[in-house]
Amino acid sequence: MRIGGFQKFSMSDFPDKISAILFTTGCNFRCPYCHNPELVLPEKYRSDINIGEIFSFLEDRIGKLDGVVITGGEPTLHDDLPDLIENIKEMNYAVKLDTNGTNPEMIYELLQKELVDYIAMDYKAPLEKYSQVCGINNDYNHYLEKIQETLILLITSNIDYEIRTTVAPQILDKNDIQQIREEIGQVKKHYLQNLESGNTLDPQFCNNSSEKLDLKKLAVGMRNVYVR
Ligand code: SF4
């Protein structure tokens, strides 16, 4: 596995936990608003961070940090993800995984082995619009099936999880959010978040001058929907 980034401290990325964040390199999507081009585009990959140094840091912080967030890129692309998490778990850290949901087989394995404590899964758009948001135009139906499989796995599991949707006003509107709600059904928590300006895969999404949706207003009356 390639590790493209490591953040030593966060109070906002793992609910109710002080965490460190480990960023894996590589993704099977190309979301135009992605803020991590250096983890997604091979020509921009950063040099790898030594995993031994990360483990030394985590050993040193036992008792001071509660958990580790594993994000990307897309962490589930890496076959050795369970091994990595097992090593982290041996230090008694809670583990949160961020995923785009395209690898239900890996999620199933992690759930079976009880290696994750919290999963945040993207549900990026209504199915008919998914290709616009994930930047994949060919053969993306395969991904849609996988995302739906992962969603069912989470809903039927006992794990704490959230579904999250980044609302890029260039692509999604109010009707799309309502359509997403119908598609995902009754999930534990569904977070809506506005697209932030910054370094993005597609420069057209860099300066977010399009009018943002009022997500708080939109979420009124929607069960289990929260706004970040
Ligand atoms: S935002 Fe999209 S392209 Fe970026 S890491 Fe997540 S799934 Fe991959």
Secondary structure blueprint with pairings:
Blueprint (H helix, E strand, L loop, with lengths): L2 E8 L8 E6 L12 H4 L10 H10 L6 E5 L9 H9 L4 E6 L4 H9 L5 E5 L7 H5 L6 H15 L4 E8 L6 H11 L5 E5 L20 H5 L5 E3 L1
Parallel strand pairs: 2-3, 3-4, 4-5, 5-6, 6-7, 7-8
Antiparallel strand pairs: 1-2
Bound molecules: iron/sulfur cluster.
Main features:
8 strands; 228 residues; binds iron/sulfur cluster; globular; eight-stranded mixed sheet; TIM Barrel; alpha/beta; 20% strand
Number of strands: 8
Order of helices and strands: EEHHEHEHEHHEHEHE
* Name of the CATH first level: Alpha Beta
CATH architecture: Alpha-Beta Barrel
CATH topology (fold) name: TIM Barrel
Question: What is the structural class?
Answer: alpha/beta
Largest sheet: 8 strands, mixed
Hetero groups: iron/sulfur cluster
- Please, what is the oligomeric state? single chain
For CATH, the homologous superfamily is named as Aldolase class I
Taken together, the total number of domains comes to: 1
The number of helical runs is 8
Whole-number mean pLDDT: 94
Unreliable stretches (pLDDT < 50, length at least 5) are none
- Terminus-to-terminus distance: 31 Å
Helix content: 25-40%
Concise synopsis of the structure shown:
The chain is an alpha/beta fold and 228 residues long. The protein has 8 helices and 8 strands, in the order ββααβαβαβααβαβαβ.
